[in-house]
Amino acid sequence: MSAAGGAVQAQPEPLDESETRRRPYGLLLVAAPVLLVGWLVIWPIVSAVIRTLWQPADDGGYEFTLETYVFFFSDRYSLDNLTVTLWTTGMCALFLLVICLPISLYLRFSVGRLPAYVQSLAIFPMFVPSIILAYAFIRVLGPNGMVDILLNAVGLPKIRTPYLTPWGPVIGLVWDNIPLTVLILLSGLGNVSNQAIEAARDVGARWLQVLWYIILPRIGNSILVALSFSVLGIFSSFTLPYVLGPAAPEMMGPFMQRTFRDVNDPQMAITQAVITFGFCIVFGLFYVRSVARNRGK
Amino acid sequence: MARLDIANVTKLFGATRAVDDFSITVTDGELVCLLGPSGSGKSTLLRMIGGFEKPTYGSMTIDGEEVIHLPPEKRPTGMVFQSHALWSHMNVFKNIAFGLKLRRLPKAEITQRVEAVLDLVGLKGFGERLTHQLSGGQQQRVALARSLVLEPKILLLDEPFASLDQHLRERLREEVRDIQQRLKITTLFVTHAQDEALSVADRIVVLRDGRTEQIAKPAEVYRTPATPFVAGFIGQMNLISGVVSEGEFGHSAFNVPVAVADGPATLAVRPEALTLKPASGVGMGHVHRVTDYGTHAMIDVELPDGERLKSMMPTADEWSSMQQVDLVPGAFALYRDNAAIYRADVGTPPRKAPSRTRGTVNA
Ligand SMILES: Nc1ncnc2c1ncn2[C@@H]1O[C@H](COP(=O)(O)OP(=O)(O)OP(=O)(O)O)[C@@H](O)[C@H]1O
Ligand SMILES: [Mg+2]
């Protein structure tokens, strides 16, 4: 810089200025989907919440009221339904973890033809519609189903069928959610390199220690994602609890449907929906948080 | 720290013989390099010693104790993998401390031993770093420290620096050699880089298709390679196929007197042992290309049959392309049936082949 002399030094343009300039285009690109989501998802939620909070008053106007919520949370039957929904969801999450983790570990760490068959078997429920699954469940585990007939043939007493008990939906929903859970766990396990595991064994870790100290911490996020995905679906599921579950208490899905259709109380049905949504959003936040944590790394 | 005996070990993967009837005794504190081209079974051999693969046949003892049936976690070996073997959910300290923690050592001792080994590998003060905050070279040092902290009887290194650049590789292998000498730890080092093997090893094992070609000290492997494969694999070597008859090795371009029985043979001569002489008139070959390396020059000589030989000369000045030259081999060796049959330390000047060309055999 000879000519510049004592003049103000020209500041070099920051190279990443273009980044900030490009941002509006990126926003434009996502604007359409965001608007669509806003219209189809966010707005109905907001409107539902508003409709449960501002209800028609006697004078023809609208007034703020918590009436339906108060009713829901003081009504024995509604609370039972909420409890059984939470219980079913928790049970399903537990069973999914207990069943899917060993399956995915097996699929990840064994080689040959057999794991391929096991994998297709584990993914199979994904292609079976819930209603067919429910029918199969009734034919196998229902009263006078295949299991009963087999037991009878060898002179054993009948089973107490889970059909029309809270266990019915649990069994059906677990079966239904195995594929998704296995797939998500498998993708998580794919990130654990063989060498990382062999290195752990090399320094003296036995299999359980490898699982506990090396594998589980690395797939913690996948477990969280898998569980929040299936839990979200299970909490608000309809078909399987409707067909396989008991008449009372019933899960939130059938409960809403019955309140809306049979009892003809849309106001109450919407309240139940908002409450269900409230629980789902908690699971959703779990998912978002784990994704964000992953991104941060 | 220990002695390793491997006897007649064979490993089959289906029909593939990854390691074929391999035997060696590695003595206390020795550093042995396993050298060979890709797929020659180096990793498989090392993984069998570490317990990650089970030999199909054979036996392996460490200090006289049979280890073949022991899983990796029960073997007194420590392995450093090529890459991706650090546990990314733990920081450097925890990576190194993991093995000690499994052994339920008191906290104070763990801290002290980890600090000591971090110091040893030149990573003092890096304990709190996460593994992804380290460079490739630092990561491999952590991997080394993780093995060393457990004071294994035998250290196994599977191309630990293969993913690093040349300079870093040279520096790290010197460091490994220093540490190994200081700790007197019996070490097996897998590499496919011959310079790496030549510079750090006490002994080199040259493998080819799972079989031992030669086990010897680096200088010996370089000076007296046992087979033409070793001759060609270590350093640069001119391999010339020809036929021995009536006490002379014959090639279309030249003949060299040798005292071996008649038959086909391969002559091996290093570029630095092959001197050139400007020819008066038509020579044994002509200069094809001259490459000046500053410290020396490499002259490619083309023989009349198209075969090319390399000759190392002190300077490039006297040589130019298409110049007619004669060859003067110094030390050379003759191979037949994958074994050396003749070695000449000082060359006898070769004669130019008579124009009635002898039957030549070219590889
Ligand atoms: N798990 C396995 N299953 C089948 N074949 C294998 C397996 N591991 C190795 N092999 C085969 O064994 C032979 C030796 O492999 P190995 O990995 O020991 O070679 P290497 O000398 O380490 O090669 P590189 O320098 O490329 O690492 C190869 O032919 C390879 O294909
Ligand atoms: Mg290898």
TrEMBL record, chain A:
Which Gene3D superfamilies does the annotation name?
A: MetI-like
* Keywords assigned by UniProt, alphabetized: Cell membrane, Membrane, Transmembrane, Transmembrane helix, Transport
Q: What would be one Pfam family of this protein?
A: BPD_transp_1
- Its main localization is membrane
Alphabetical list of InterPro entries matching this protein: MetI-like (IPR000515), MetI-like_sf (IPR035906)
Residues in ABC transmembrane type-1 domain copies: 82-287
Q: How does it sit in the membrane?
A: Multi-pass membrane protein
Give the transmembrane region(s).
Answer: 25-46, 84-107, 114-138, 167-189, 210-235, 269-288
Location of this chain's protein in the cell: Cell membrane
Q: Domain of life of the organism in this record?
A: Bacteria
Q: Which family does it belong to?
A: Belongs to the binding-protein-dependent transport system permease family. CysTW subfamily.
Q: Which PANTHER family does the record cross-reference, listed alphabetically?
A: INNER MEMBRANE ABC TRANSPORTER PERMEASE PROTEIN YDCU-RELATED (PTHR42929:SF1), INNER MEMBRANE ABC TRANSPORTER PERMEASE PROTEIN YDCU-RELATED-RELATED (PTHR42929)
This protein is called: Spermidine/putrescine ABC transporter permease
Origin species, per record, is: Devosia nitrariae
Q: What is the lineage of its organism?
A: Bacteria, Pseudomonadati, Pseudomonadota, Alphaproteobacteria, Hyphomicrobiales
From TrEMBL, chain B:
Spell out the PROSITE patterns in the cross-references: ABC_TRANSPORTER_1, ABC_TRANSPORTER_2
GO MF, any single term: ATP binding
Q: What is this protein called?
A: ABC transporter ATP-binding protein
Does Nucleotide-binding count among this protein's keywords?
yes
Residue stretches making up the ABC transporter domain: 4-234
**Lineage of the native species?**
Bacteria, Pseudomonadati, Pseudomonadota, Alphaproteobacteria, Hyphomicrobiales
Q: Record's InterPro entries?
A: AAA+_ATPase, ABC_SmlMolc_Importer, ABC_transporter-like_ATP-bd, ABC_transporter-like_CS, Mo/tungstate-bd_C_term_dom, P-loop_NTPase, Transp-assoc_OB_typ2
Instruction: List the SUPFAM superfamilies.
Output: MOP-like, P-loop containing nucleoside triphosphate hydrolases
Its source organism is: Devosia nitrariae
Keyword set, alphabetical order: ATP-binding, Nucleotide-binding, Transport
One Pfam entry name: TOBE_2
Q: Which PANTHER family match?
A: SPERMIDINE/PUTRESCINE IMPORT ATP-BINDING PROTEIN POTA (PTHR42781), SPERMIDINE_PUTRESCINE IMPORT ATP-BINDING PROTEIN POTA (PTHR42781:SF4)
The family this protein is said to belong to: Belongs to the ABC transporter superfamily.
Gene, per the UniProt record = afuC
